[in-house]
Every structure is written in C-alpha cells, then in structure tokens.
C-alpha cells in the first residue's frame, strides 16, 4: 500500500502525516518528518504499520521520537496499535534488492508459504559456515537460555555468531539480550540487531512483548521463511537457531530450507522430560540432521550458603539417554539463580559473569561444539 492509499477502516495518509508532524523533539524545531518521508501504510485488525524512508544517519535522530509517534498514531480512529518501520535510501542507480524498499510486514502475502515467492528453490544462507538448531521436546527446560548462552560462548571463542529466535509464539530473545529496538530495513532486507557481539533476529523485536501471536501455522511458517530469506545475515561462522518446543511444522520448515550442520537437544534430568527429548532426537534423525549431543539443564542445585548439592529433578538422565541413543553427551548445566537473573537482566551469564559456575558450564559446551564442527578460529 502506498502513501496515497487509504487504509480500510483507518485514517488516510494525510491524517497520519499530520500526526507525525505533531511529534516534535525537545527543542520543538524538528519532528519525525524532518528526517523521513512517508513510504507506505498498512492497517490490519487495528495494527498500523507505517513505513518511513530515511537515511542511516537520520534514523538515529528518529529513534528517540519513535515511541511517542507510535503512541500518537495508536490514538487515531481505527488504530489500536502502531509500528513505525524505517527503510533506507539506496544509492542513486543502485538496483533495489528484492524488488525495492520493502518493510518487514506481519501481514505480507509472503507469509503464505505456498506462494512462489517463498516456495523453497534451494538451501538458504550459504554465507553461514554452520547452522545449529537448539531444540527440546517440550517447553520449560531452559532451551532459550541455553541457546543464548551457547551463542554467546561461541562468540566469546572468536567466532562470528548469529542467533535466530524461531519461537514465534514465545519470543524471548529481546529480553534475554537486553535489546528492544526495532530492526532497520535497508534495500528490502531486515538488518539484524547487534548485541553482545552477535547478530540477532526475533519476532519480539517487531511486536510489543505483551502482544499474543495468535497465528495459524501458515503465518508462522511464513514469518520463519522471511527471517531466513529477508534478513541480511552477514557472513557468519555459526548461526544458532532457538527452535520452538516440540516436533512440528516449524522444525520441518527450517530443516527443509536450511543445510543444518546439527542439532543440540536440551532436557532436564527427569523421565517425563527425557521422553520428549527422545522424540526430538528421533525427529532430527528422520530429517537426516546430525545430533551434536544432549545437554542436561537444571542438572543439580548447589546451595549458595552451605554448598550442599541437591538433585531436584534427579540427575544423569540426559547422559543415560545420550548413551542409549548413541549420541554425544555435551555436559551438565546447574540450576543457578544467577543464570535466571542474567537472562532477566538481558546479559548472558557467559559474558556478564565469565568466572561463574554457570558460565563455565556453557563455555565448555560451546567449546565442545566448536571442536566437533571444526569451527575453532
């Protein structure tokens, strides 16, 4: 939809322009449109997505105004929520990548994985040396915390590392990395967020963290496809994918579109979690994805006062399961308050507290994976 179109059941472009002009900086001399021009409007179910064309330098000037501008737009009739997406000018004469400037849109036709635009024609991300899926058979076993700290551990080893949050329904990456800025869009490609020396992407960077993603399967698959094909991932040594829990469509889509070097399965020690871990191992084996190993998370709790060790969920179950399945056992990660606190604070414990017991556990796993895939630099 161009700026001249009138969104159905929403304000016209003139009203949106007027609203953007009213949001001024502290000096009262500049507003959002002092540094950008309106490129497109899309409204769906009360969610307005406003695309603004700007430059990289001016984008930094817009950032402080963006939250107030989005709040002002959300007060317009027919709009309950607004998202402003910045797209970059391309150099004169430069052909637009992917058919021109195009902001990431949650309601894009590309979210239908059956369209020719998204139908797989070959493996994606050839510029990434190794793509690793971090998975679990069920939720609540610390998979995302493990994925973030594993990626941070690989980055700490000097590897060029990316991190993709493929859990559309429960994105946790923005909180765990301490970043909430919206991604920049340049020449039709989403520029990943840079945090803690890593390149990261999550649906959580594009929507309010309080928003429930009430999507059917095709929309989820379309979003994942866009994260793989429409994100300007740089050359990387390794890309860690935080998979959604379970063994469903998302796992199949990622395995079909990417050349995965391997999968890491995260489980807690108790039998009920190991049942689902077995299903995860079986799923990846059926898709011919090598199992790099199992990690036993929340393996034990050590009292910070008396150092007494308690095995709250049992102990050794993941190691026994790895031996039974004939796959490597990558290590144990203890149940520590510091790991939880670092995730809530947006600072991976591997980097924020490198001498801690938790950091040593994650770093050992990262080193084992780097060595097994010969990624050491």
Automatic annotation (TrEMBL):
One of its GO terms (molecular function) is ATP-dependent FeS chaperone activity. It comes from Neoasaia chiangmaiensis. Keywords: ATP-binding, Hydrolase, Iron, Iron-sulfur, Metal-binding, Nucleotide-binding. Gene3D superfamilies: P-loop containing nucleotide triphosphate hydrolases. Belongs to the Mrp/NBP35 ATP-binding proteins family. GO terms for biological process: iron-sulfur cluster assembly. Transmembrane segments: none annotated. Homodimer. This is Iron-sulfur cluster carrier protein. SUPFAM superfamilies: Fe-S cluster assembly (FSCA) domain-like, P-loop containing nucleoside triphosphate hydrolases. The keyword Hydrolase applies. Binds and transfers iron-sulfur (Fe-S) clusters to target apoproteins. Can hydrolyze ATP. CDD domains: Mrp_NBP35. Residues 15-82 form the MIP18 family-like domain. It holds the Pfam family FeS_assembly_P. ATP binds at residues 137-144.
